[in-house]
Fold this protein.
Amino acid sequence: MSNDDKDLKAPVPTSAEIIRLLASDDDDEPLTGGTMEKVMKHIKASVCCIDIKEFILIAKQEHQQQQQHQKRKPRTSTSHNGSNAHYHTVPRSIPICDARSPGEFALGHIPGATNLPIFTNEERSIVGTMYNKTGRSTAMVKGMSIVRPKLGTLVTTAVSIVANANIRARAHTQSSTINEQNAGDEVESDETSNSNSNNVLLLHCWRGGMRSCSLAFLIQTQCPDLKVYVLTGGYKAFRKWQYSLYCYLPPNANYSEHHSELKGGGGASAHHHGTGKKRMSQKQKLKAALRKSTAKGIGATRRESDIAQADARNRELCGVGQAVKDNAARVEKDMEAAEAQRKAEWADAFDRGPRIVIVGGPTGSGKTKVLYALRDVMGEQIIDLEGLANHCGSAFGFVGHNEPQPTTQQYTNDIAMEWNSLDPDRPVFIEDEGHHVGKVSLPVGLYRKMRTASIVLKLDVPKEIRIIALREDYALPEKKNVEDDSCNDSIPTDKDISEWFSNMIEAIKSLERRVGQKRMNTMLEMLQNGRSEDFAREALEYYDGLYDKHIANEDGSADMKGNGSRAATISTISVDNMEKFDAVAVAQQVIATYNELI
């Protein structure tokens, strides 16, 4: 009998024995696969696991609390184009720890989570390779041998994360209370103010729970006053949740239903492509068979015999054809039933979201500034897709942003938490974006809801005002000469100017394929000669054409059926009688128009 078999028949170790076993050195008490299986079984039974709905409920309460603070005290940290440099500013009192490796965490994580890796990237690769080649038990033994020396540090770090989160939350609450008292606002009760102090930790890993459950077990046995919850299904469960959050999505969903039908695996139209042969209909096959049999015949008798055989094959093929049709009908009916079941399951799992109101308009219309006026001045709900993407959406969208764009995975995570924190009984205002913002992609479900939104408000801003707006947003060197007091704290250095020119040239050159070499060279010459107004005018001519196609939906995805028409009538908001763009005044027009439409 092998050592592993003996270990499996041995009694289940107690928590104290597990702690002693994990803390031992390999030479003193070596681990075996059977022992590790029993240890993991006991550990998973000892920790408190919560499903994704419970986890998100806690995270949603935290996120809504952040938004309430942000509404009471508008944020002033903005980039030169009006978008916020940091979307989340209020510290979390209930921290989330991600036990995955740094590489996994960097690719995408739950917003607000802190990385508490059990393995480094290299160690995870070693254990993962062993898991694939030699099996689970051997990999667990190797993993525990790697983790053993780190256990004390991991527990101490987790406890520190919880303590620091509580300290920051209490300090922020006290600061907010003082500011509200000075501003004459109503102050929260002590019960609400003290609700930020919690000895709770949310913990997760990738999927299986071995990493997170092991860490949770160690923390709660050494720190009994700290309550640890482990996310069942881990980060993979969160990713599945965020994907389906906005609306029901069929398998292989893409940015439009029409596109999904053409590109989805196994569809009715998919098998016609790439075969290299023209498919023959049943009638064509019968005619071919008849010609073939007739060609063999010499005389009437032989021909009649061949025709009779062809008729028999015809009757046989008709029967087969009917069977095929009946089977296809049954398959289609089963698929429809499965689709209805999935839709019902989605409705049970997800709450109704808010109504989306699209704020559109060509480049330079001040859409982002209007969104922030809607939120900070008028108290409306918004999602700033460009702010979360750290990009303004155009070829020049990265100019002025010092931080790189997030990964698409992280971008969709951030949007999901924003969406989940919204009040479903109030509208949410979102800018009219395509399905890409720079190098990141919008969530498929959200894009579908945006393109089928019932209200689209298009800002019609005079071109001269838009040119001024573009120069303010992008012409960084000009700010040296602007006498506006609001720009005095953003005077660029020589290094800033050099980087700005380099970025602008890079953006212009990226347009060569679309605008042609001649037009590109003209734009470069305008930029290098300081003709910023002419440059802005030239850029608007190009981008206005693109936006006209976008809002008219020439790519055929507006109604998700490939029909090329918006689901809503586009309401135009004319912005005039302004020497300079006034975002608050335009936001008031947006609200007035919206109220007329509902």
